[in-house]
Design goal:
This protein is 42% helix and 18% strand. The protein is an alpha/beta fold. It has a single domain, classed as Alpha-Beta Complex (Spore Coat Polysaccharide Biosynthesis Protein SpsA, Chain A). A hairpin with a 5-residue loop joins strand 6 and strand 7. The relative contact order is 0.14.
């Protein structure tokens, strides 16, 4: 192959690759946004479509987006009804067969998109694939490792399944079959999406690789009363939709039982929790 033929060969190779569309929802997190954008642009997978949605940041985030605009596939700067609605708008513009989404304070680790695309291309029966993640602080220091659980609708309803959101990729048809994100969801919209994918019959898989860094900082801590109330409301709504009833007294016992089972089924995550502490409710100096 001559030097003149090389660009043509690369173009043909790219045409045969499955496109991966990644959406970032950005809102007033300028402190971390640039690192998030760079982590996507630095991926070694050539067929990435990157979409950034910002409904109205006022902290300098839009200036950061403008600096990278020539390298971002699409930028959506319109008001929305919250993160779930903004993500739906981003995915409505996506053209990839494989989708993923990255919050504006998290990072994709090198090779994540290529590894996810390779796995899904090799396993056409799988609709959703998750890797693992590094829990990091504001300064990118690693606090502990996070390991995705295997999906189970029943265990999810009882709070015993966690898929690491920035390390999860899924097919376009799986997203559409689940109906996308629920715009009314103001908390746990990612987990609710994965649950609806499972209820729609999608097959889930886990790859034993670290694909993202999930950032913990003061604004992300969900221990506030308002956040806790939103999570409780969302979980109650999900329980009613899946079970067709409100929780009863014995469901508390089942919750503890299923969460114990989770610790047994995911021993590495359990060990990380014992050794390095939980995700939420921790101080950032740990």
């Amino acid at each position: 192959m001559t030097r003149n033929e090389l660009p043509r060969w690369r173009a043909i190779a790219r045409q045969s690759m499955t496109r991966v569309s990644i959406v970032t929802i950005s809102f007033n997190q300028a402190e971390f946004l640039e690192r998030t954008i760079e982590s996507v642009l630095a991926q070694d997978y050539p067929e990435i479509e990157y979409i950034v949605v910002d409904p109205g940041s006022t902290d300098g985030s839009r200036e950061i987006i403008d600096r990278y605009r020539s390298r971002i596939s699409k930028v959506i700067l319109r008001p929305d009804r919250g993160a779930a609605d903004g993500l739906n708008r981003g995915f409505a513009e996506a053209t990839g067969e494989i989708l993923g989404f990255l919050n504006s304070d998290d990072l994709l680790l090198p090779g994540a998109a290529s590894q996810a695309a390779k796995f899904l291309d090799k396993h056409p029966d799988v609709g959703v694939v998750s890797g693992h993640s590094r829990l990091i602080g504001p300064d990118d220091r690693v606090l502990r490792n996070l390991y995705s659980d295997r999906m189970s609708v029943n265990r999810y309803v009882y709070g015993a399944v966690v898929l690491i959101q920035p390390s999860t990729f899924f097919r376009r048809k799986t997203f559409d079959q689940a109906g996308g994100f629920r715009p009314e969801s103001k908390a746990c919209w990612d987990g609710e999406l994965f649950l609806e994918m499972a209820r729609a019959g999608a097959r889930f898989a886990i790859v034993d690789q670290f694909w993202s860094a999930y950032r913990l900082h003061e604004q992300s801590v969900t221990g506030s009363k308002s956040s806790a109330a939103l999570i409780d409301q969302t979980e109650a709504r999900i329980f009613l939709r899946v079970k067709g009833r409100k929780p009863r007294g014995y469901d508390t016992v089942l919750t503890y039982g299923y969460r114990l089972i989770r610790h047994v089924l995911n021993p590495r995550d359990t060990w990380e929790r014992i050794r390095r502490g939980p995700v939420f409710g921790r101080t950032l100096d740990r």
